[in-house]
Amino acid sequence: MQYYQVFISAEQTVQAYRILDQLIARQLVFGGPVVGGPAKFLWNFKESDVPESMRQHKLLTLEQDYNYIITYTREDLKEELVEVAEAASLEEVCMISFLPMEPNRSLRILLDASFEDREKGLQPEPVDAVAALTFVPKAQISSRTKSSDGAVGTRR
Q: DSSP letters of the chain?
């Protein structure tokens, strides 16, 4: 099975979460961060959905704050992922990139478990908890991460 790291564009953070929520609800992506910041784009407004006075065959640069969803998916989910993301997006062009990747075993197992039984239509539910930062003694650090080369499920 081919796995992908996926980048999906969104003009605003709220739009990014709208897209991510729709994709997670259908178990099309693993989930991940919404990363935002200043951006600059090269744009030709000739065919764009902008006021008529701006529709010229002219290359312009556009500066704005911008967001990307960074997530993971599998080959068999790509087509539906594009359909759902484009339907949820408010952008004229929802930019979606699929970067082929070779995950380590632990990530592959995690991804497969996340996409398991998706045909049953189970709806993901929010957990009634929050992530909390903790302190880990240096001597225990190497034993906290699941091993990709030992027995499946073992820790380093």
A: --EEEEEEEESSHHHHHHHHHHHHHTT-S----EEEEEEEEEEEGGGSSS-GGG--S-EEEEEEEEEEEEEEEEGGGHHHHHHHHHHH--SSS--EEEEEE---HHHHHHHHHHHTTGGGTPPP---SS--------GGGGGGTSBPSSSSTT-B-
**Amino acid at the residue 124:** P
Q: What is the pLDDT of residues 21-56, one digit of tens each?
A: 999 999 999 999 999 998 888 777 677 777 777 777
CA distance 66 to 52: 24
Q: Tokens for 24? A: 């997670």
- Residue 34: strand pairing partners: 69
In 3D space, the residue among 33, 42, 56, 54 whose CA is nearest the CA of residue 93 turns out to be 42
pTM over 0.85: no
